[in-house]
Amino acid sequence: MSRQLPQRRMSSIHKETKPNEKHPQFGHLPLSTSGPQDCALTGSALLNTPYFNKGAAFPSNERKQFKLTGLLPQDVHNLDQQVKRAYQQYSSRQDALAKNTFMTSLAEQNQVLYFRLIQDHLKEMFSIIYTPTEGDAIQNYSRLFRRPEGCFLNINDIGRVHEDLAQWGGPEDIDYIVVTDGEEILGIGDQGVGGILISVAKLVLTTLCAGIHPNRTLPVVLDCGTDNEELLNDELYLGLRKPRTRGKVYDEFVDTFVKSARELYPKAYIHFEDFGLPNARRILDRYRPEIPCFNDDVQGTGCVTLAAMMAGLHVSDLKLADMRMVVFGSGTAGTGIADQVRDAIAADSGKSKEDAAKQIWCVDKPGLLLKSQGDKLTHAQVPYAREDSDWSGKEHSNLLSVIKEVKPHVLIGTSTRPKAFTEEIVKEMASHVDRPIIFPLSNPTRLHEADPKDINQWTKGKALIATGSPFPPVKYEGKEYEVAECNNSTCFPGIGLGCVLSRSKLLTDKMLVAAVKALAAQSPALKDPDKGLLPDVVNVREISVHIARAVIKQAVEEGVATEEGIPTNDEDLEEWIREQMWDPAYRPLKLVDKQTANKHAKGQSGTKGQKGDL
Questions:
Q1: For bias kind Basic and acidic residues, which ranges apply (predicted)?
Q2: Active site residue 141
Q3: Tens digits of per-residue pLDDT, 209-220?
Q4: Is omega for the bond preceding 444 within 30 degrees of 0, making it cis?
Q5: Residue 487 marked ligand-binding
Q6: Shared-domain flag, residues 120 and 140
Q7: Domain boundary residue among 465, 486, 507?
């Protein structure tokens, strides 16, 4: 990985076409989004299928052909008019949670309108459909429950896992699975069965940000019980009312799920989400050598942070191989970041991973991680524990002491300890390096380690800053500096898209490094050091094309891509990717016979085609 990152380059395809414009030369592909869709449904059944329903936008010919006359008002409206109406309804909701509930209801009625509304108002709605509002919805899942969405597997019925998963389609019907056990949700902890909503939300982001086909996705919750006493004592709680099952039975449950999912949906990519600290890394390490899988808390956070860091190193004219980094908060996210940085150093410099890890110092509640801490170290922390002899006679119980000794170029905060990066700590760091790279990443905003405006003031405008939540630009002596947001949504959807389209057998270290390079190369700071270290999330679909292209090329190079006919030049490859990205746009419907129709045409595909009762 070179210190000199490439500038953003627009191919001739980009010069001649609009982003995400379709290219019918690839219209024959199974995931093509050009041309009409087969539909075997008519009348009310069609209106009740979210991925086919157009509401008042059904044109006159389809109203007649699909027996909708009399079921709709007479005037035909276009999608823009529908978005305008839906946005007015959305805006009338009194608070963020009510807006979230409205959006959930809209998704259950009209899939295209739901995604188009968000796409047109992404900056405003992102916090409503995802963090922090989705956390409130998850906490209140059993009270807000109206209709089940996704697959619910429980640890008391391990023998039924295969049968329950099989309801969601055939071997060709599912591309992307997000699964959680609900133990560590969005910084709010154990939410039991309510974790299904984080699986749903992540899949919304894959569609919104990378065009993963929404009716080819599957959200799953592994209900293992909960240790949340509030939920256990809530008479309306919908999950298993028992403490969490752990140990051998838990591992058997997870293994049964993974093996069943692979048997039933052999081309599906599995995304692990919000598993607890004792399990997240362990599960990822267990299955990563065997199947295409990913953990956003570990790898996604690591990738997006590394991309921001690489841009910062470019601005500060420092090589990755010479960088020193301190991570404050060595849980799933902190060690995930450390792993991505370690692997990138190794790839860039030719060092072993063990030697690369020596450039990283991890600090947690007891202070610096040391080998003498033995069994108190998690599996993920072990590679970063330092030799006790190296710190003999040196203070290492607090962050300030470690900063003084290490003199790091980069300081990462994933501790959820508010204001942990004090003025003294920040100034100490700035006294040793010209452009300190400081990332207070803890979410939500109230838990961040330092306010960007304070960091900027304490370093006299020299710090390169990225945060875990959006912050406004900061100023110093009249000069304005943008604050980058380390938003995983700029990264994980594109990685998933690359794996799905290439039908990769694995997601390798080099594929992740390729994704990081692709994201870092789009940093606005490469052209102007006062701009953000990462591109804005509003540009995420274009970002995802670049990331998917890099991931696919690396998968082909390593021989893990199994899809036939992947284009070999960049322009054709981008065209090939765009043609297979789902867009929130109404496509013409073609009436087909129900007897010979596939599951999709019969309204039985994916989570959005499923119906349930109160």
A1: 13-24
A2: no
A3: 999 999 999 999
A4: yes
A5: yes
A6: no
A7: 486
User: Is residue 273 marked as binding?
Assistant: yes
pLDDT digits (tens, 9 = 90+) for 343-366: 999 988 889 999 999 999 999 998
Active-site residue 202, yes or no? yes
Q: In terms of domains, do 71 and 155 share one?
A: no
Q: What is the pTM of this model?
A: 0.90
- Copy the structure tokens of residue 250: 């838990």
Q: Which of 22, 54, 99, 202 is catalytic?
A: 202
Q: By C-alpha distance, which of 410, 416, 462, 419 is closest to 442?
A: 416
Phi then psi dihedrals of residue 23, to 5 deg: -130, 100
Round to whole Å and give the CA distance between 314 and 276. Answer: 35
297 assigned to a ligand binding site: yes
Q: How many residues can be counted in the chain?
A: 614
Catalytic residue among 51, 114, 130, 287: 130
Smallest CA-to-CA distance from 173 within 271, 258, 36, 265 is with: 265
Q: Specify the CATH number for the domain of residue 407.
A: 3.40.50.720
3-class DSSP assignment, residue 370: strand
Torsion sign across C-alpha atoms 95, 100, 103, 108: negative
Scanning 478-610, the segments in alpha helix (DSSP H) are 492-502, 509-520, 540-558, 570-579
Nearest by Cα to 86 from 62, 59, 56: 56
Burial tier of 563 (Cβ tally within 10 Å: 0-12, 13-18, 19+)? middle
How does DSSP assign 85-98, residue by residue?
HHHHHHHTSSSHHH
| Distance separating alpha carbons of residues 593 and 603, to the nearest angstrom | 13
Instruction: State the virtual CA torsion across 579, 582, 584, 585 in degrees, nearest 10.
Output: 40
Q: 3-class DSSP state for residue 476?
A: strand
The count of structural domains within the chain is 3
Q: Across all residues in the chain, what is the average pLDDT?
A: 92
Residue numbers of the domain that contains 62: 37-131+595-609
